[in-house]
UniProtKB/TrEMBL annotation:
InterPro entries: Aerotolerance_reg_N, UPF0353/GerABKA_families, vWA_BatA_type, VWF_A, vWFA_dom_sf
Protein name as annotated: VWA domain-containing protein
VWFA domain location: 92-286
Keyword entries, A-Z: Membrane, Transmembrane, Transmembrane helix
Organism placement in taxonomy: Bacteria, Pseudomonadati, Pseudomonadota, Gammaproteobacteria, Pseudomonadales
Superkingdom assignment: Bacteria
Pfam family, one: BatA
Residues annotated as transmembrane: 305-327
Xref: PROSITE patterns: VWFA
Length: 341
């Protein structure tokens, strides 16, 4: 649908009529009339004659068409599209990722190749972040100390880059789960209550920090933060040594009871990721539990069209200017021939 942003400006199209009416009234008795101090500008316009010669009708029509195009451009024609619903997520997601040295355990497998836990987390979170269009995402990395790697932002590319740059042991060798949750709650506290979500991923138990995980869980529940916890690590793997091979449990330090309690007390869920496919399924499940799109506002996309009449007006003005210049040169040549003759 085509519409005008300022339709009342179309009244400017009538100005040439007032100009013509003034010229016709000047043929009778002279009367005093207000003087508009733009005569010097109008006299330079192509198609306007000040030397008593009658302007050709076709040139007057081109000048009138240029004026109408200019008035139309000033009125700002627009194309208003069909109604579109804006996707509104309503989610503020803090990602809490354990980067303690234990995450270097190579018990995740992708395409027959063993990778460590942090590499698996980066691989899956990269896809998860890409799907959360419209969400504010934040990133907390923790070991002995937690720190905010990325504050809540709509810039998913920055969050992804900062996650991929995270290195093992950057935050210390222990695991401060309680402090990490407390820091995330502090960042989420100022957000609308129904939007506060934190996803904690770790492979161990709480071994450091000033705030216990249970106390941090109480604070999260009081602040209305839903906490989803993920325990990562295989249940068993073959360990080869000088005396042969033996089967070990690489997740023996994982405190599943604590992670389950933390999730249940805040209205979230606990997930167990024993392999890369399971980790991918967990984040797919979180996508379903915390849907991306909710009912949002509607808007109509607007495309500005004023450039077309404005461009036409400029083109006509240039054409008239060129024709006036050619006519002027032709008259000078004729005058020169008469003088020499």
């Amino acid at each position: 649908m085509i519409s005008l942003a300022y339709p009342w400006l179309l009244l400017l199209a009538l100005l040439p009529l007032f100009f013509l009416a003034g010229k016709r009234s000047g043929r009778g008795e002279p009367v005093d009339a207000p003087v508009i101090p733009v005569g010097h500008w109008l006299s330079g316009m192509p198609g306007v004659s000040t030397q008593g010669r009658r302007t050709p009708r076709w040139r007057q029509l081109l000048l009138l068409l240029a004026w109408l195009c200019l008035v139309l451009a000033i009125a700002r024609p627009q194309h208003v599209g069909e109604q579109v619903q804006m996707p509104v997520s309503g989610r503020d997601l803090m990602l809490l990722v354990d980067i303690s040295p234990s995450m270097d355990e190579r018990d995740m497998v992708v395409q027959g190749r063993s990778i460590n836990r942090l590499q698996a987390v980066k691989r899956v979170l990269d896809q998860f972040i890409d799907r959360r269009e419209g969400d504010r995402l934040g990133l907390v990395l923790f070991g002995t100390q937690p720190y905010v790697q990325a504050p809540l932002t709509f810039d998913r590319e920055t969050v992804r880059t900062l996650l991929l740059e995270a290195g093992l042991g950057m935050a210390g060798r222990a695991t401060a789960i309680g402090d990490a949750v407390g820091l995330a709650v502090k960042r989420l506290r100022d957000r609308p209550q129904e939007q506060r979500v934190a996803i904690l991923l770790t492979d161990g138990a709480n071994t450091a920090g000033e705030v216990s995980p249970d106390k941090a869980t109480e604070i999260a529940a009081a602040a209305g933060v839903r906490l989803y916890t993920i325990g990562i690590g295989a249940d068993s793997m073959i360990q080869r040594g000088l005396l042969g091979s033996r089967r070990v449990n690489p997740s023996r330090d994982l405190d599943e009871a604590l992670l389950t309690r933390m999730a249940e007390q805040t209205g979230g869920r606990y997930f167990r990721a024993r392999s890369l496919p399971e980790l991918e399924m967990i984040y797919d499940s979180i996508d379903q539990l915390e849907p991306i799109e909710q009912e949002g506002q509607f808007y109509r996309p607007v495309t500005e069209l004023y450039v077309w009449p404005a461009g036409t007006a400029v083109a006509l003005w240039l054409l008239l200017s060129a024709l006036r210049l050619l006519a002027s040169r032709a008259r000078r040549n004729e005058s020169g021939e008469v003088y020499h003759g």
